[in-house]
Amino acid sequence: MKKINVALLGFGNLGQSVARILLEKKEEIEKVYNTTVSVVAITTKTRGNLVDAWGIDLERVLGNIQETGVFPKASETMLQRNALDVAEAVEYDVLVEMTPLEYATGRMATDHIMAALKRGKHVICANKGPLAWHYKEIEALAEKNGCKFLFESTVMDGTPIFSIVRENLQMCKVTEIKGILNSTTNYILQGLEHGKTAKEVVAEGKKRGFIETNPKNDVEGHEAAAKMAALVNVLMGADITPDDIEVTGIEDITKEDIDKAAAKGNVLKLICRAYEKNGQLHVKIAPEEISKLNAYATVTGTSQVISITTDLMGTMTIIEESPEMEQAGYGVFADLLTIIKDL
Amino acid sequence: MKKINVALLGFGNLGQSVARILLEKKEEIEKVYNTTVSVVAITTKTRGNLVDAWGIDLERVLGNIQETGVFPKASETMLQRNALDVAEAVEYDVLVEMTPLEYATGRMATDHIMAALKRGKHVICANKGPLAWHYKEIEALAEKNGCKFLFESTVMDGTPIFSIVRENLQMCKVTEIKGILNSTTNYILQGLEHGKTAKEVVAEGKKRGFIETNPKNDVEGHEAAAKMAALVNVLMGADITPDDIEVTGIEDITKEDIDKAAAKGNVLKLICRAYEKNGQLHVKIAPEEISKLNAYATVTGTSQVISITTDLMGTMTIIEESPEMEQAGYGVFADLLTIIKDL
Q: What residue of A is the nearest CA neighbor of B327?
């Protein structure tokens, strides 16, 4: 039986979802790939850190988090190390970067990743910051050191957007990307449609757990911009940052705008677009009127949609329907299986 | 430079599309995979057959078909062999089965495939018959002889449905499949909606080239049933034939039915469904009323849609927007690249 040692940076909803899937599929991984996955480190900002070369008991840790919100204080494996220390010093085979998105730079997450790649370790990244701000630099180091750098869960959770283009649309050139990639804004626009105020909708979304404490970066389009930068850097060979994207958020949308659109049989959606025109890449995020007869108009709640247009395969539209946290966890898990398969 | 010899059975719209892509991507394949693709045989029912161990000049053949509708009669490579003869006797590495779907048995295409697999040759199949009627038998022989058996273009052209589940949704168990998989019926229902008679719509579709001379198998749901049998056999591990599917076509749908649905904010669509309930697989094809607020209602013209639900990834819906013949050709081409990559 082979063994693969994994370090998890971040253990919020996503990290916990990954841990649950690892427990659930433990026997199947052992059977299919003759491999045991051992989590040797978990770092968090507020719950403490765990390092254990013998493997952390995920079931116990999940129970602790459930009960007390933190790791067991008395644990002999508890260490006062931060994520970068772990990336640089702990013995692991795969680093999983799941720290929160850091707007404007994506630097901290990138530092964790570079530290791992410098040591010749594989990296799974669930944080879109490094792709949005430093993709070329990371990709170059990964290639130089023969490491895998995978990041399926950064856009639309575990929906295999990056893998589909990389593995299933071989030799296709991506000419256009379009999508509704931020569910907070989509949810707010839908609420306005139904006569609620933005404030009411945000309060409701926070209560239901899928709108962040401060949704400013969602509402102003910055979260979507980070995703679009990641998408065009990876899929269209671009080298941009979110600052290069023309972004208009939904903060100025009023009920009147929505009613005006409705009178024409349209709905308002925050649409992300990237396309090439005369050899020039254009990337834009802005509210647009979409016909109710278009599939995009039917994407509501927490669902998201992306359309990939290529030279050979025309346009393929993928809707992720009402994802739960498990779907984001699956994105990380699928990346891990890709690494395990190649061991 | 490696060389891969390919035999094409069938050279209608699909085969010609494959040939055009092979010409277009010739240099890229040589560069990326250090491999030359050589077509050593083409068989057809009405255009003649070509066999040439040195490689057929695809550009010349496409030109001939364009001009005269048949292969060059005087060609020294012209042979009076049928598809099975070629499958059994010609020297090739990959057989591409593109003969027309044979309802009720799928036998002839299956015979071609089995002949190739018996000889240890790889097979690409664009014909859903073998998957709908004989998948287990073919798959077993392919595995025994270490051959690849790929069939991406059988459902939704080149949309990589089978590859996504096989490669990108690893360890996910498919629990449900749903789709609008027959564009003829979708197009007819849409025409009825707009006040045309079925006869008028069919005539129009034939003129535009995407409705067959005799659309009976489409209208009665048999074409969709062949696709669903293929899907559940491959993706859900079933062993059924289209005869095991409960099929209701659209032949009895009237304008009144459509108006009644419209009054409720619905449209009528021919919906394919497969799901497990109490350990039992249910597969059903029938017209259903779909809310206009659902993405399925927006799938019109020649577009198709499929939703795959898995235990770990929830529901992913994929729309293929207004495919052209090139997209079906791409499905075969992508399968060929998969084989080339592993050479």
A: A313
